[in-house]
Amino acid sequence: MALHSTTADGGPTLARAGAATDLAELRDVSHRIATNIEQVIDGKSQVVRLAIAVLLAEGHLLIEDVPGVGKTKLAKALARSIDCTVRRVQFTPDLLPSDVTGVSVYNQETRDFEFKPGPVFANLVVGDEINRASPKTQSALLESMEEHQVTVDGVTYPLHSPFMVIATQNPIEMEGTYPLPESQRDRFTARVSMGYPEPAAEMKMLADHAGADPLDSLRPVSTGVEVRRLIDAVRAIHVSDGVRRYAVDLVNATRRSPELRLGGSPRATLQLLRVAKAQAALAGREYVLPDDLQQLAVVTLAHRILPTAEAQVARRTTDLIVADLLRRVPIPRTADEHPLGSRG
């Protein structure tokens, strides 16, 4: 999608035409996936759109809410909408790290150890109730989520692209749960809550889901190859210096806030920008606007930061703190200029 310097044969025009074609394909495929998911999840179009944006941003999604609101159904519906390898892991207190990553077993015939891949070796990994496993088992996902590889017994195995972890968890106040460590939360690009459905959506659910599970009839509407092509298109979305500066200012504000004892990491800044590029592409734009960052700041930053004891006593959630910071951090003036004007 990148624009190039003017050439005699009309290079920029051709580049713009190619970018428009890429964006048209991206919007078409993402619409098909969203429509497919919404056959199962009623009245949650914003959550569905964000899940697709995280997929195209090469990120990972954490779905946190109380039991029974459709967390696992959303994860399964997204996974089944793409014709690629999908594995589901039910996290339990007795789950071992090797149950996730894989294990080397001795082969009597070859008289050597043979690696048996775990469920993490898939394009889409659905981790159900991830915070019911011990911190040791939760940490088995750290390397794969950050580096797209797994190391077992000193041997490193690459993971295939696309690779996405979609994890669900109940609030940590629920019985039998372990809070995710900071390093694990920081690897999730975004955290969303399903929330209870609207009465009309719940009535529709009762009519559509009472007889049969719509997941059973869900069929893929895209492929892993197609998704990889869309990911490449998202990578080429343009980000101006002003928008980059705004992203840095937002994350820096969390580090300076007196209400927080842990602010956003540089990884948080990078992932905020990546998912903003995906959102811009889904909107049909070749460039990111400050509005994209504002719309995504809470879902990409709030789960990574830690409030002070005083903020907790005052019932100041991290969502509220990030929302307040958004109102206070000024938008750089350069971000208001035409975002493609400084292209070289």
Structure, explained:
The structure is a single chain. 44% of the residues lie in helices and 15% in strands. The chain is built from 14 helices and 13 strands. The chain has helices spanning 11-37, 45-56, 71-80, 97-101, 135-138, 142-147, 182-185, 199-209, 224-235, 241-256, 266-282, 290-301, 309-313, 318-328, and strands spanning 61-64, 82-83, 86-90, 102-107, 112-117, 124-128, 149-152, 155-158, 164-169, 190-192, 222-223, 260-262, 306-307. The strands form 5 sheets. Strands 3-6-9-1-10 form a 5-stranded parallel beta sheet. Strands 2-11 form a two-stranded parallel ribbon. The protein has a two-stranded antiparallel sheet with strand order 4-5.
Please give the order of strands in the largest beta sheet: 3-6-9-1-10
SSE string: HHEHEEHEEEHHEEEHEHEHHEHHEHH
CATH architecture of the largest domain: 3-Layer(aba) Sandwich
CATH topology category name of the largest domain = Rossmann fold
How many beta-strand runs? 13
Largest sheet: 5 strands, parallel
Radius of gyration: 21 Å
Provide the β-strand percentage band.
15-25%
The chain-level mean pLDDT equals: 85
Task: Give the low-pLDDT segments.
Answer: 1-15, 334-344
> What's the number of helices?
14
* Top-tier CATH class of the largest domain: Alpha Beta
> Could you say how many structural domains there are in total?
2
What sort of overall outline do the alpha carbons produce when their principal axes are compared?
globular
Seen as an oligomer or otherwise, the chain set is single chain
Class by SSE composition: alpha/beta
Looking at CATH, the homologous superfamily of the largest domain is P-loop containing nucleotide triphosphate hydrolases
The end-to-end span amounts to: 14 Å
Percentage of residues assigned to helices: 40-55%
